[in-house]
């Protein structure tokens, strides 16, 4: 029979610290939100100015935002940003089906 050297009265359970009423907190990752905003801005530029590179960059930002979003995030906002960027790419190629020229080649 072995004697357990641990003392049960000295065991203290870990309790995660709560945020002090701050919205977000210092450890919250804001990159999905920034990419979501950038995706919406670039998709609107791609739609309004008919810039294909803006539409592709919007799709890239939306994919990053979707991939790094948390399960607790609002799925409607991420999906609407993704659909807006896809529609920007589709509409820019429907209006002008020629290949994309890089912005520095003009």
How is the secondary structure organized here?
Layout: H1 31-49, H2 52-67, H3 75-95
Subcellular location: Membrane
GO cellular component, one term: endoplasmic reticulum membrane
Transmembrane segments: 37-66
Question: What attributes does this structure have?
Answer:
mainly alpha
Tally of contiguous helical segments = 3
Q: Give the fraction of residues assigned to helices.
A: 40-55%
* Radius of gyration from CA coordinates: 24 Å
Range of strand content: under 5%
Structural class: mainly alpha
Shape: rod-shaped
Span from first to last CA?
84 Å
Low-confidence parts lasting 5 or more residues at pLDDT below 50?
Answer: none
Q: What value does the average pLDDT take?
A: 86
Total strands: 0
Can you tell me about this structure?
By secondary structure, this protein is mainly alpha-helical. The chain has helices at residues 31-49, 52-67, 75-95. Helix 1 (31-49) runs antiparallel to helix 2, helix 1 (31-49) packs parallel to helix 3 and helix 2 runs antiparallel to helix 3 (75-95). The longest helix is centred in the last third of the chain and has 21 residues, at 75-95. The radius of gyration is 24 Å and the shape is rod-shaped. It starts with 30 loop residues before the first helix and ends in an 11-residue tail after the last helix. The mean pLDDT is 86.
């Amino acid at each position: 029979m072995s004697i357990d050297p641990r003392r049960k009265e000295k065991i203290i359970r870990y309790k995660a610290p709560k945020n002090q009423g701050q919205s977000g907190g210092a450890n919250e990752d804001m990159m999905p939100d920034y990419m979501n905003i950038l995706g919406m801005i670039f998709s609107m530029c791609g739609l309004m100015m008919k810039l294909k590179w803006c539409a592709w960059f919007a799709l890239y930002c939306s994919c990053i935002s979707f991939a790094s979003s948390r399960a607790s995030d609002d799925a409607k906002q991420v999906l609407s940003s993704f659909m807006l960027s896809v529609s920007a790419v589709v509409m820019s190629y429907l209006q002008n089906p020629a290949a994309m020229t890089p912005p520095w080649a003009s």
